[in-house]
Each structure stands twice: as C-alpha cells, then as structure tokens.
Amino acid sequence: xxNKISNVRLTQMVTSAGCAAKIFPHILSDALKGINWPTNENxxxxxxxxxxxxxxxxxxxxxxxxxxxxxxxxVDDPYTYGQIAATNxxxxxxxxxxxxxxxxxxxAFPQKEDISIIKDIxxxxxxxxxEANCVIIGGHSVDITNILYGLAVTGKIHPKDIKGNDGAxxxxxxILTKGLGTGVLNNMVKFxxxxxxxxxxxxxxxxxxxxxxxxxxxxANANACxxxxxxxxxxxxxxxxxxxNVNLVFDANKLPVLDGALNAVDNNFLTRxxxxxxxxxxxFYSSKGTIKKVIEHLIFDPQTSGGLLIxxxxxxxxxxxxxxxxxxxxxxxxxxxxxxxxxxxKGTIILEY
Length: 353
Ligand code: CO
Ligand code: CO
Prior knowledge:
By secondary structure, the chain is an alpha+beta fold. It is built from 11 helices and 13 strands. Residues 67, 69, 92, 229 line the site of one cobalt (II) ion.
C-alpha cells in the first residue's frame, strides 16, 4: 500500500519502537510486587504464571482468553504498522491454543498531525483481524504526542485445552515458528535503510498471523506454548522453563534467523532490550561450547510479532514440522529439547532453572 504521508516518517515521531519499548522487566516486576490483585475461582490463568494471556472460566465447556498489546510504530507506513500491531496483539490468544472472537482498538495519536494516518493504521489492524476471522466491536483513543496502536483481544477455548507455559515435559522437543531478529532489523529501519528483499521478509514475518502455527500446535498435542515477543527468545523461554520446572536446551546452530538480521547485529543495531533481556535472564542463562556472539545477540533481541515456541512430545515433532511448513510457516524448525538435567552437548544454549 502506498504511503500517503511521504514527508512524515512514523518511526521518527516516537522515541522507541515496537516490543523493544516494553518497560524493563525488573522495573515492572518491582512495581507489581505486593499489589493485592482481585481474583476468584474462575480465574484459570492469572498474574501468577507470567503466561501470555489471562483465562477466565465461564462454565465447564467454555473459558475466555483476554489479552492486550499495543506499541509505538516500528515502520513508517501506517497501514503496515496497523497490520503488525494487530498481528502481535492477536498472538497471545494463539499462544494459548485459543480462537480470537472479538477485539477492541487502542489508539493514541497527536491529532495536530495528518488525520488520514489514523484511518490507515486502523485499516491495517481491521484487515488483520478479519483475516483471523475475528471482529472489532469498539475501542478507545487519546490525543497525546506519542503514537500507540494495538488491540485488546478476547478469545475462546475449552477449559481443558488451554496450552499454558507450565506444561513442558522431559522428552519434549522445542519448535520455533518464526525467524529471530525483528528488534535489530526494526532498529535498522528507524536509523538506516534495509534493502527491499530484507525489508519485505521482515514485514511478511511480522504480519503473519500465528493462527496456523497455533492450529498445528493444537493438532500435535503440544504440552506447552508461548509466543516470543518483547523479552526475546531468552526471556520467554525462561518464563516457560520456570513455570514448567524444566531446563530448555537450545542448539545455537539451529535457530531460525530472518534475512539480514546477522548483518544488523554486526552493524550494531542492537536495541536497549538486548541489555535488559540479558539482565532479566542472567541467573537462568548459560552457554556451553563456542557460540557466535551474533547468534547470542539474537536470543536476547526483543521480537515484535514473533513466532510460537512450542514444547511438543518428540514423537509428534516431525509431523508438526511438516504441518507447519505445508501451511506457510516456512521458517519453523526444531531448535532444542526439554531436559531436567544440566548436561548438554557442545554448541548449545541452555536456560537453567
Ligand atoms: Co505472549
Ligand atoms: Co503480550
């Protein structure tokens, strides 16, 4: 789609971009400590597990999944930005194995700017929500100096079918469905230039719904799942490892990487999230063997609209990979395994718990 605001670059109107703009996890967890969150027996997934979304039981057959995500522009084109933000917001429902049913817009925009930008952002979001067979039934907007867009999404699921981050078991293998590197590549978009092939690869990854990945994951009887977003592969893996009480052992050589991402790391387009995600995971991360520094940066790189990390019984993994790839998740690959032990082979990354 043509960019109607050739003289305005969305990424230049904001201070930090996408999921890289998250509040640092240690600051957030300090702030959340000690608050008495209201809860009741219908809360199936709440604050405790640091899971992707909250789940609330309506009856024995039906639970609702609730999640919200919004962020500042990662690209200059408003329509594409809307698509990316919506894809990212829907993702937490997919990570739980659920089906999105409706959504609300969340928008912040400086109204002194060209108002047609708003229409383009919301159109991008609306088109993605439609692709998800979901509907938009309202929203909320504010006039402030920064731009923010995203959704609050409601999904549905059978209470027995919830794929939390606490179910990973020894004997499972780990599958990651999208390439890593959106943080460094988005940073390069903001401060420099990407060639067309690399830019298009980045955009098609960030605007790809995790819908197929989720449906495949459910068909394969996965034990646990999460999506990889602002805390990076390392941070979201740590949350899954802690919740499941296991170690996750990654093979650094097998991690899927977006085209151009290694080059972006080499050219030092690291985000501030690289540092804060290292800080967040430092007590639960160790590496064995000779791991290239560039690859290591990518496991801490904050992802915007990243893929699913799936923990699945080893016997189901081959069919799951075929299923994923047949339906368009081309970058999906087996990246490691679940272990309760600390021993690991050369060239692997281990997240210890
Ligand atoms: Co998530
Ligand atoms: Co989220």
